[in-house]
């Protein structure tokens, strides 16, 4: 009974943290119909057993899949990222940094940081600026931000090497 109570507290705490994060991003909690852990694995999870947060947020107008993967160091993140680019998108095609290709039928946003890889995928639209603000994207900490909107080609933000 005590262990079950602790697990319920952990679950409730996790849900509250998630709802706080969702509100900070600018997604009205009242718009959410359902929130649950994502079970589907994505390519980067094959490497180095990352710590992760994977959620599906089902709203009134869209569904968002949110993957936040954390690795031990930047070399692991970059290794995973470049391996993923070798088989990226719906057709698992090779993508080079800066390529402007249409690789997914659904919009996505991919953010690569020192020890983190964040991947968002939606049915209709992802507000890149809200997510960049949420993750406090700035040149000194980030490597890449890659966005593809529905029926568009990939757009890249490539940050200079840090000193």
What does this structure look like?
The protein has 163 residues and is of the alpha+beta class. It is built from three helices and seven strands. The protein has helices at 2-25, 74-85, 128-134; strands at residues 32-37, 51-59, 63-70, 108-113, 116-122, 142-148, 155-158. Strands 1-2-3-5-4-6-7 form a seven-stranded antiparallel beta sheet, covered by helices on one side. Strand 4 (108-113) and strand 5 form a beta hairpin. The longest helix is centred in the N-terminal third of the chain and has 24 residues, at 2-25. The chain is globular and about 40 Å long. The relative contact order is 0.13.
In short:
This protein is of the alpha+beta class and 163 residues long. It is built from three helices and seven strands, in the order αβββαββαββ.
What attributes does this structure have?
single chain; 163 residues; alpha+beta; seven-stranded antiparallel β-sheet; 26% helix; 29% strand; globular
Strand order of the largest sheet: 1-2-3-5-4-6-7
Given helix and strand content, the structural type is alpha+beta
Taking pLDDT < 50 over at least 5 consecutive residues as the criterion, the unreliable ranges are: 7-12
The total strand number stands at 7
Overall body shape? globular
Termini separation (Å)? Answer: 53 Å
Mean pLDDT: 80
C-alpha-based Rg, rounded: 16 Å
- Percent of residues in helices comes to 25-40%
Q: How much beta, percentage-wise?
A: 25-35%
- Spell the H/E element sequence: HEEEHEEHEE
Main sheet, how many strands, which sense, barrel? Answer: 7 strands, antiparallel
Number of helices: 3
């Amino acid at each position: 009974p005590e262990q079950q109570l602790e697990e319920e507290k952990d679950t409730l705490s996790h849900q509250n943290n998630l709802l706080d994060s969702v509100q900070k991003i600018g997604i009205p909690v009242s718009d959410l119909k359902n929130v649950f852990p994502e079970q589907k694995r994505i390519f980067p999870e094959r490497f180095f057993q990352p710590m992760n947060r994977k959620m599906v947020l089902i709203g009134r107008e869209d569904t968002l899949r949110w993957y936040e993967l954390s690795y031990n160091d930047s070399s692991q993140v970059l290794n995973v990222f470049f391996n993923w680019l070798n088989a990226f998108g719906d057709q698992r095609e090779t993508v080079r940094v800066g390529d402007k290709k249409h690789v997914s039928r659904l919009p996505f946003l991919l953010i690569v940081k020192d020890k983190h890889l964040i991947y968002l995928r939606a049915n209709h639209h992802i507000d890149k600026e809200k997510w960049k603000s949420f993750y406090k994207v700035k040149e000194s900490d980030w490597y890449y931000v890659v966005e593809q909107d529905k029926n568009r080609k990939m757009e890249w933000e490539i940050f200079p090497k840090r000193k």
